Amino acid sequence: MSFPKRVYSNAMNHHQELLQKIAAGNSTPEERAALSEWLKTLSEQVYHQVLLDYAEIMSQQTVSDFHNAALLEKVNADIARAEQVTLAVPVYRRMWFRYSAAASILVAALLSWYIFSPFKAAVPVATTNIPPGSNKAVLTLANGRQIVLNSAQNGLLGKQGTVQIIKLDSGLLSYQGATTTGEVLYNTIATPRGGQFQVLLPDGSRVWLNAASSLRFPTAFTGADRAVTLTGEAYFEVAQNQAKPFAVTVNNMKVQVLGTSFNIMAYEEEGAVNTTLVSGAVKVNCENNQAVIAPGQQAVLPTGKSQFEIGAANIEAAVAWKEGHFLFDNNDIYTIMRQVGRWYDVEISYQGDLSGITLSGAISRKKYVSQVLDILATTGRVQFEMKDNRIIVMAKQQ
């Protein structure tokens, strides 16, 4: 097997051969040390690409390809000892982790997941498997009529005044033909646990709804502003309109914008409303307190409070769900499992002391729940059992 076709220098091609020798179990300590030093010289972009390419090769291997597990385990241990850090979290094929340690630890992590997991005595996580969430939502019209969007045919779904409600081939719900006069009618689109959906509002603004969320909006923005109401989580790309500010009300808080991209996470069980700005500028209001945040910042409003906490945001982590990933940035296991529970529509329970268990990494949201749990279990920090629609989370017994 060889690396996928990329534009690589001769030096990179040489080191790809070393990675393949490691995969085959016939590399020398000198070669492994040289590889470790070379990885430290790469830019972040090239470094990540090399790791992903290596992971792509490993994903095509079979268990029989790794007959010399003992030798490869020694490789992993040698690299980890050389950096004098403990390998805490393995890396899955498209699962990358943020480390302050040197690049060689990521190589060790790759080896740890791809090579050793087939030989481990795994804890069974599922007697039945659960597929990932999908595009599912219910649209409630102004007259109370409900349309199940995931089963509705593409095309015209109905009319609200002069506005046509159309389900496009892409699955996007679109409101077309809006006017600035006439009766104001309100619609609500709601996603269940295990669902997501996109809607193109009458002004051209686009909204991505995460699982267990809802958006109430007028079928035409006829007033002085463009006001919508959110529960749960959504990502907004707001159409520019200087004459009509866009406003999102969530709980007792309001977010005001002219044209920008931002994410609001307001699940009740998370204990706070997080507003993360990707581009533009927004003003957040709660009672008599307000703040303006800049791109790359996040405004956090804890439940029951009116004072915002403003700080730097991990943009990738905040919007990863929209891009089809879970992205954990040193999150505690409870936060992680709440995301899993909402996306797979499963109940979560815990056994034992799980305090202090935090993980970082990315996992595709397109995987079955058992695959996600298996990946999390490879960290060696947690283990799982699954009974029907319930996941039991336990600390890994040492």
Automatic annotation (TrEMBL):
<protein>
    <submittedName>
        <fullName>FecR family protein</fullName>
    </submittedName>
</protein>
<dbReference type="GO" id="GO:0016989">
    <property type="term" value="F:sigma factor antagonist activity"/>
</dbReference>
<dbReference type="InterPro" id="IPR032508">
    <property type="entry name" value="FecR_C"/>
</dbReference>
<keyword id="KW-1133">Transmembrane helix</keyword>
<dbReference type="Pfam" id="PF16344">
    <property type="entry name" value="FecR_C"/>
</dbReference>
<dbReference type="Pfam" id="PF04773">
    <property type="entry name" value="FecR"/>
</dbReference>
<keyword id="KW-0472">Membrane</keyword>
<feature type="domain" description="FecR protein">
    <location>
        <begin position="188"/>
        <end position="283"/>
    </location>
</feature>
<dbReference type="InterPro" id="IPR012373">
    <property type="entry name" value="Ferrdict_sens_TM"/>
</dbReference>
<dbReference type="InterPro" id="IPR006860">
    <property type="entry name" value="FecR"/>
</dbReference>
<keyword id="KW-0812">Transmembrane</keyword>
<feature type="domain" description="Protein FecR C-terminal">
    <location>
        <begin position="326"/>
        <end position="393"/>
    </location>
</feature>
<feature type="transmembrane region" description="Helical">
    <location>
        <begin position="96"/>
        <end position="116"/>
    </location>
</feature>
